[in-house]
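A reminder from the course coordinator: this example appears on the midterm review sheet, so study it carefully.

Given structure:
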């Protein structure tokens, strides 16, 4: 695979183009002509002498669903922090498509470029309704005057309705978010993330604390997102991973230990020893 080429106009290119309607790949300024949409090469991150990431190299193809697993301390969260700009790598390259160097962008610029992240603990506006949460999250001009004058058009309303249907919240549209179950709050936050029209969706332990029924519905949701977005799921629930996994990457001590189909990874002696066998 050819590595991405650097470019001085990364930030400008990130904002080019116009977003397509919900349900289709949104590709403003992202050059995926060589296939990969995310490319990490030789990424190292150290904290007080501890290497959270150790020469990590990882490639994610456009529109794929990838599961990232591994023991605690394997570097999963740090990897997501690097992709979203929360943590800067000591060494290595991180590209979004062929030309957008994520190490040169601020967190807000990376989000605007099309990379969205949902953290493990759901963060919603609990005193507002489900609809109001979705309305606030829409990809619109958030400057004060524009927000005061904003009215939703039919396309925006249709997008909200489609996302609420996908996230199993269509019947909860007028409900106060604070009264939702934990699983429903997770879905609402995923919905709010989708309303930003991200090209890449990073989900950090999306089924933590969910009931079995909610976990099953979340698996269905992840599979619906596949192809429409590039989806990266970090999760410890192996039953859930088995339901959605197309390709699994196992991290250990900040590097890729194994990678491949779920059945292959499950039977890898190294993975059994450091993770699955525990």
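Designed residues:
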């Amino acid at each position: 695979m050819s590595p991405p080429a650097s470019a001085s106009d990364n930030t400008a290119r990130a904002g080019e183009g116009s977003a397509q309607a919900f349900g289709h790949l949104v590709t403003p300024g992202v050059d995926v002509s060589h296939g990969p949409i995310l490319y990490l090469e030789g990424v190292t991150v150290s904290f007080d002498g501890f290497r959270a990431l150790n020469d990590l190299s990882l490639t994610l193809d456009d529109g794929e669903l990838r599961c990232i697993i591994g023991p605690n301390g394997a570097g999963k969260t740090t990897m997501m922090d690097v992709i979203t700009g929360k943590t800067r790598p000591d060494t290595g390259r991180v590209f979004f498509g062929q030309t957008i160097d994520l190490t040169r962008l601020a967190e807000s610029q990376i989000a605007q470029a099309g990379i969205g992240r949902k953290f493990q603990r759901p963060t919603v506006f609990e005193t507002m309704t489900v609809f109001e949460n979705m309305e606030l999250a829409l990809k619109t001009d958030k400057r004060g005057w524009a927000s005061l004058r904003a009215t939703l058009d039919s396309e925006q309303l249709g997008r909200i309705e489609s996302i609420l249907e996908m996230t199993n919240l269509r019947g909860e549209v007028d409900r106060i978010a604070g009264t939702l179950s934990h699983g429903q709050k997770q879905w609402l936050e995923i919905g709010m993330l989708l309303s930003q029209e991200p090209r890449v969706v990073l989900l950090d332990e999306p089924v933590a604390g969910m009931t079995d029924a909610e976990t099953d519905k979340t698996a269905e949701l992840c599979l619906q997102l596949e192809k429409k977005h590039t989806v990266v799921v970090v999760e410890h629930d192996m039953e859930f991973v088995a339901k959605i996994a197309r390709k699994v990457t196992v991290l250990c001590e900040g590097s890729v230990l194994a990678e491949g189909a779920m059945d292959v990874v499950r039977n890898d002696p190294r993975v059994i020893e450091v993770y699955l066998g525990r």
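The chain has a mean pLDDT of 86. The CA atoms of residues 175 and 191 lie 15 Å apart.
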